[in-house]
From TrEMBL:
Pfam families: GATase. The keyword Hydrolase applies. The lineage of its organism: Archaea, Promethearchaeati, Promethearchaeota, Promethearchaeia, Promethearchaeales. InterPro entries: ChyE-like, Class_I_gatase-like, GATASE. The keyword tRNA-binding does not apply. One of its GO terms (molecular function) is GMP synthase (glutamine-hydrolyzing) activity. This is Gamma-glutamyl-gamma-aminobutyrate hydrolase family protein. Keywords: Hydrolase. GO terms for cellular component: cytosol. Residues 36-192 form the Glutamine amidotransferase domain. Gene3D superfamilies: 3.40.50.880. It comes from Promethearchaeum syntrophicum.
Length: 208
């Protein structure tokens, strides 16, 4: 099988938290046909690095502690937003990365109505239609903001899952291989949830 290259964009100020990064490493070290690397979002200012990322076979956008409800944080993400726009291969946004996708296509990112309702907890999601072959998953949620549903959303995206607290839990662009999930497949203290999250990441990689 031909080797594929996956780039994980680190959207945190410093490094991806180790408990999340370690799950990503565990998921992708098991795929012998895959080369992967982590690149910090600020490194995309470098033209050569940016162009090399565009040549990869897939991209994952990590979570972050930034908030796209602020103009300041939107400006920090200009190169990542441009990357989403220009990349035409499989791309997965996780939590904040999911928000970046929604923001790029013109939808508001703001706080949940109940700000701590999905903070550091496990919930069950049903996917309709199935997402990467999954009809349902127990997933780890830890977020305060969300993509706000608005008129025209379902003209651009297929909505795969909702929860009581957050309508837009999982999406795919109708015409491009762009996926977004509000949950963290790379995070959980519960072994069964962690195992399924790692398998979810591997299934995404298999799209490349």
């Amino acid at each position: 099988m031909k080797m594929k290259k996956l780039v994980i964009i680190n959207n945190y100020k410093d490094d991806i938290p180790s408990y999340r990064k370690n799950s990503i490493i565990l998921a992708f070290n098991a795929l012998k046909w895959l080369k992967y690397e982590f690149i910090h979002f600020t490194d995309l200012k470098n033209k050569d690095i940016y162009e090399n990322v565009l040549k990869s076979d897939g991209i994952i956008l990590s979570g972050s502690r930034l908030y796209l409800s602020t103009i300041e944080d939107q400006k920090k993400m200009e190169n990542v937003l441009r990357l989403i726009q220009e990349f035409n291969k499989p791309l997965l946004g996780i939590c904040f990365g999911h928000h970046l996708i929604g923001h790029l296509f013109g939808f508001k990112i703001d706080y949940l109505d109940s700000i701590d309702s999905e903070s550091d907890k496990i919930i069950s999601l049903d996917f309709n239609p199935p997402l990467l072959e999954y009809k349902s998953m127990n997933v780890h949620e830890n977020h305060k903001q969300e993509i706000k549903f608005a008129e025209g959303f379902e003209e651009i995206f297929d909505l795969y899952a909702s929860s009581e607290e957050c309508k837009i839990q999982a999406i795919k662009h109708k015409n491009r291989p762009i996926y977004g999930v509000q949950f963290h497949p790379e995070t959980s203290a519960r072994e069964d949830v962690k195992k399924q999250g790692i398998e979810f990441l591997q299934k995404f990689a298999s799209l490349m």
